Amino acid sequence: MHSPALPRADLARLDTGLDAALQHKIDNKTKPPGALGRLEALALQLGRLQNTLSPQVSAPHMLVFAGDHGAARAGVSAYPQEVTWQMVENFLAGGAAINVFARQLGWTLQVVDAGVAHDFGPRPGLVDAKIAAGTANYLEGPAMRPDQCQAALARGAALARQAAAAGSNLLACGEMGIGNTASASLLTHYLAPAPLELCIGRGTGLDDNGLMRKKDLLGAAVARYPGATDPLSILAHFGGFEITMMVGAMLAAAEAKMLIVADGFIVTAALLVAARLQPALPDYCVFAHRSGEPGHQLQLDALGARPLLDLGLRLGEGTGAALALPLIQAAANFLEQMASFESAGVAEKT
Ligand SMILES: O=C(O)c1ccc[n+]([C@@H]2O[C@H](COP(=O)([O-])O)[C@@H](O)[C@H]2O)c1
Ligand SMILES: Cc1cc2nc[nH]c2cc1C
User: Fold this and answer.
1) How many Å apart are CA 84 and CA 207, to the nearest integer?
2) Any idea which residues are catalytic in this one (predicted)?
3) Mutate to test the pocket of ligand 2, among 183, 204, 314 (most ligand atoms within 8 A of CB)
4) What is the pLDDT along the chain (350 residues), one digit of tens a residue?
5) Does an H or E element contain 211, and which?
6) Could you tell me if the CB of 176 is within 6 A of ligand 1?
């Protein structure tokens, strides 16, 4: 599927021209070489991305995309579909885990209705980008029409461009959508690619019977759509609107040279789609954490990614991305603020 909503140009790999100077700056800080571990690689990545020896994290922006899934009614989740809109209300009231972590960081969230099956009316703090009241059920046909897929990609891209225009150079993505681990499993199966069975987990907490049912249903969905390889067609077939909007946001964020902070299983499914469209995309990403959802590791392997944290989180909402933000800020800060051996008068290695 061709996408008029997305940039046509190939996304460039990050320029490594400053690597030697960045590494020299990192190595001259008052610490043994390599002693700041993964933070040193993060500092190098930030320097490459911003093409400077003094990278900074400016106005980090978090988008939390919410959407409903037609397949949720068939029983792929431990929770009823209504939880999606109820949790959006919780986000708006400031009572969800992501609100707590965002407050701790002094961070504001932008909550986006990408396609929730509920009429919120005009609400302060909620971006109305509703494509439809939930996707169609992919057990019966495509989750969305091609024009809906394009509209979702375009809306996501516009939100990332707006954040960049307002001075942000870091985009963190989060999501909420009952049934969206099923969509993420299907996308992972086709795009990692990986055996379907290994891509399916308990999501919000299915018991053994529920997991068996989810595997049966998703097996039937794949049987209806054999041999697909085109990433946008697969995305449109299995949804959801929140995942599609994240794909658009990620591609536009990378184009604007923002650092993209990925969260868990569903956000990384969107990233898998985006990386199939723009293979250089992982250069622009930090993988915040390893989700407790087992298919996440398959996605990370497919992307050659190593997450920063491993806390057993499986909540979504962007919680892992929020928890990783201080580490990214620490990487920029040590590079900017630490003394060098010379400036501090500390003797170097003998
Ligand atoms: O981020 C993750 O890795 C993650 C893993 C499992 C579940 N979730 C969240 O749980 C919801 C989807 O779970 P489910 O079982 O309804 O497919 C959705 O709102 C996600 O944000 C998120
Ligand atoms: C309560 C609840 C909160 C969530 N946050 C993200 N996904 C979620 C799923 C449930 C069920």
Assistant:
1) 20
2) 317 (proton acceptor)
3) 204
4) 567 777 778 999 999 999 999 999 999 999 999 999 999 999 999 999 999 999 999 999 999 999 999 999 999 999 999 999 999 999 999 999 999 999 999 998 999 999 999 999 999 999 999 999 999 999 999 999 999 999 999 999 999 999 999 999 999 999 999 999 999 999 999 999 999 999 999 999 999 999 999 999 999 999 999 999 999 999 999 999 999 999 999 999 999 999 999 999 999 999 999 999 999 999 999 999 999 999 999 999 999 999 999 999 999 999 999 999 999 999 999 999 999 999 999 999 99
5) helix 208-223
6) yes
**Structure tokens that stand for 50 in this block:** 């911003």
Q: Which of 242, 317, 336, 348 is catalytic?
A: 317
180 lines ligand 1 (CB under 6 A): yes
Is-catalytic flag, 197?
no
User: Hey, where are the domains in the chain?
Assistant: 61-333
To test the pocket of ligand 2, the residue of 77, 87, 109, 267 to mutate (highest count of ligand atoms within 8 Å of its CB) is 87
Say how far apart CA 194 and CA 334 lie, in whole Å: 39
Contact 191, 183 (CB under 8 A): no
Rounded distance between C-alpha atoms, residue 250 and residue 245, angstroms:
9
Does ligand 1 have an atom closer than 6 angstroms to the CB of 188? Answer: no
Was domain 61-333 assigned CATH 3.40.50.10210?
yes
Does 218 sit in the ligand 1 pocket, CB within 6 Å?
Answer: no
